[in-house]
Amino acid sequence: MYFSTTLALFTALAVSSAFPTHPSYTPIFPRGNATEDGECRDGSDVARGGKLKAEAVAEAHQRDGTATRAASAVTIKTSDGNCLTVNPCGGDFRSNLIPIQTKACLPSSDPKSAQQKFDLITKGKHISQEGGTLVVSALTQGCVSFDPRRKADDQVNIFSCGGRAGGEGEENDSQFFSFSAGQKTLPLAQLGTTKDATTCLVSAGGKIGPSECSGQRLQAFTIG
């Protein structure tokens, strides 16, 4: 339930948005309430209650222009061929705490395919650890995060990179996943500070959740 334009045009609309901007970020959502077709925009209802606030989203999810990206705007597919999908209105008013759904992959000509694009960042202001990557929604610029403190069915979400809701965080190991350059099929194993990856992401029930790393098929993901 998103976009009526391509991602490029969508960004252009955001830049020309009428509401004020902070010098260091630009809102990615056009001004105005949600349209009847369910497009997610400033003022839309969000799944966790309240309304989407475009300025808060932009502040919480600032793109790291200095980062090293091992891959940009790629799909991440489950073992059964579905794509990881991020609905910007699926979380809170900042587009935090968005569950990562698994849905049929969309053709690149479909504007909603932007919800299925990710960057893999191996070095940047939110990651310095070797052998790891951030998995970042190319649309919202939020990071895939594993938080074992949350209830069992709500531990894997998109959250501000760096781990602070307002975007002021630096690094958070709950967002580090094991990765080697050139890998195309891999488990998304939560790296942590010890590099002892024991928790892997798994596709189950139409969304992504955590499980103990076991090498099972459902823990394998294909990049691109």
In short:
The chain has 224 residues and is mainly beta.
Can you walk through the features of this model?
Helices cover 7% and strands 26% of the residues. It has 224 residues and is mainly beta. The chain is globular and about 40 Å long. 42% of the residues are buried. Mean pLDDT is 82; it is low at 1-37.
Report, as a whole number of angstroms, the end-to-end distance.
23 Å
Q: How many extended strands?
A: 14
What would you call the shape? globular
Alpha carbon gyration radius: 16 Å
Query: How do the SSEs run, as a string of H and E?
Result: HHEEEEEEEEEEEEEE
Poorly predicted runs: 1-37
Described by strand count, sense and barrel closure, the largest sheet is:
4 strands, antiparallel
Count every helix, treating DSSP H or I runs of 4 or more residues as helices.
Answer: 2
- Report the mean per-residue pLDDT as an integer: 82
Structural class: mainly beta
Q: Helicity range of the residues?
A: under 10%
Q: Estimate the strand proportion.
A: 25-35%
Record the strand order, biggest sheet: 1-6-7-10
